Amino acid sequence: MKPTLNASHDPALRSWVTSANVQGCDFPIQNLPFGRFSTSSDAFPRIGVAIGDQILDLRKAGLIDTDDMNALMAASPEKRAALRSLISQGLTQGSARESQWSAALVAQSAVTMHVPCRIGDYTDFYSSVHHATTVGKQFRPENPLLPNYKWVPIGYHGRASSIGVSGQSFKRPKGQTKAPDAATPSLGPSKRLDYELELGWFIGRGNAQGQSIDIGEADDHLYGVTLFNDWSARDVQGWEYQPLGPFLSKNFASTVSPWLVTLEALAPFRVPFERPSDDPQPLPYLDSAANRSHGAFSIFLEVLLQTATMREAGIPAARLSLTNTDRAAYWTPAQLVAHHTVNGCNLQSGDLLGSGTLSGPNEDEAGSLMELTTGGKRPVVLPNGETRTFLEDGDTLVMRGWCESEGAVRIGLGEVLGTVLPA
Questions:
Q1: Residues of the chain with pLDDT > 70: what percent?
Q2: Are 400 and 322 in contact (CB under 8 A)?
């Protein structure tokens, strides 16, 4: 389905919610991401749309009659587009809805945010060839990029129950590790705790078991995207990952941002999908003219770190890396959906497809400490003189994302924040 721009994308559009008109705001009226929030008086999370520094309560505004975000996500693309249009029109400067909807606004600072929907299943992919090559050199120096990588989207089934929302704190995981010079493995807290800079693509409409999703229809089944941090215990991973892949090194915690930026909002930021001419071209089920012309997305991604010492001294988080998905991703979201279902696997509304660590080609575009420090051999020096090879207790990791291009208003994905607690 070719993405179309409509009145909701108009760069000249302004909202009567004045904070949405501030230049550089993550949530201008052109964005309208969905999330679930609650106040102290709510028994259950409610569905809202971020606008500036406010949230429009969709049920209170009379726009929906459910608190089930997954039901909204499962609607047809036409119904989703119609709801977006109604919200956009009602929030536009001069709208007759202003007096009624003002009472349906609540400040983002006054609520508790939740995981944006009910996550049934979670699959993590490995869609950055730069990450796969750099990490592969550390795990398999003689064979860093396995021969299947450029032919098939590699993934594994993750643990949905341990996914939390931005602001999450988690205990340093324990696991079994084995030092190269040790005769036997031992159990203890991970000494090589890492982050992974990812995007989380969410399924809107599912498919029946046994029925694959054609790549030309994949966009109709994708709802939107969040920022995603797949925390990783690298020492545990190195010992356990062969022959079946990650297990305890990944399932202890993952953190997602609270706002689902819809595919409709991302329409102005689609870009062509291109493979190097000397790389294998995708097999027919992973290829289409539409995917080649606009299957990729241009999303800027930033990672920042604030240690406990920095926080106590009032020193802001320091940037570790900055990249763009157009430089980092080897596979498009549509290809991930097509491959995931080609064997008849049935996806459901709310299923999460992690992109895998998104690292660009340059050293300062790495999406993990494993890459930035070359496996701990080259410490990162922070503004206050502290160094890091891997995460320490008290560290807070922040990821931010945004889209900007000529002729379009900048929109943001917000941020995903998590803090490491002692084991």
A1: 100
A2: no
**3 state SS for 34-59:** EEEEECCCCCCCEEEEEECCEEEECC
Q: What is the pLDDT of residues 194-214, one digit of tens each?
A: 999 999 999 999 999 999 999
Q: What single string gives the DSSP state of each residue in 162-210?
A: GEEETTEEEEPPEEEE--TT-SS-EEEE-SSEE--EEEEEEESS---TT
CA distance 154 to 125: 6
Rounded CA gap, 78 and 96, in Å?
Answer: 24
pLDDT at 186: 96
Q: Which amino acid is at 335?
A: Q
Of the residues 9, 114, 130, 131, only one is catalytic, namely 131
Q: Are 200 and 333 in contact (CB under 8 A)?
A: no
pTM of the predicted model as reported, rounded to 2 decimal places: 0.96
Domains of the chain listed by start with CATH number? 7-114 (2.30.30.230), 122-421 (3.90.850.10)
Distance CA 356, CA 146 (A): 16
Active-site residue, 131 included: yes
Contact 360, 328 (CB under 8 A): yes
Q: Which of 229, 405, 393, 250 is nearest to 302 (CA)?
A: 229
Q: 351 and 296 in contact (C-beta within 8 Å)?
A: no
Q: Residues 422, 166, 79, CA angle at the centre, nearest 5°?
A: 155
Nearest CA-CA partner of 335 in 273, 406, 397? 273
- 8 Å CB contact between 72 and 64: yes
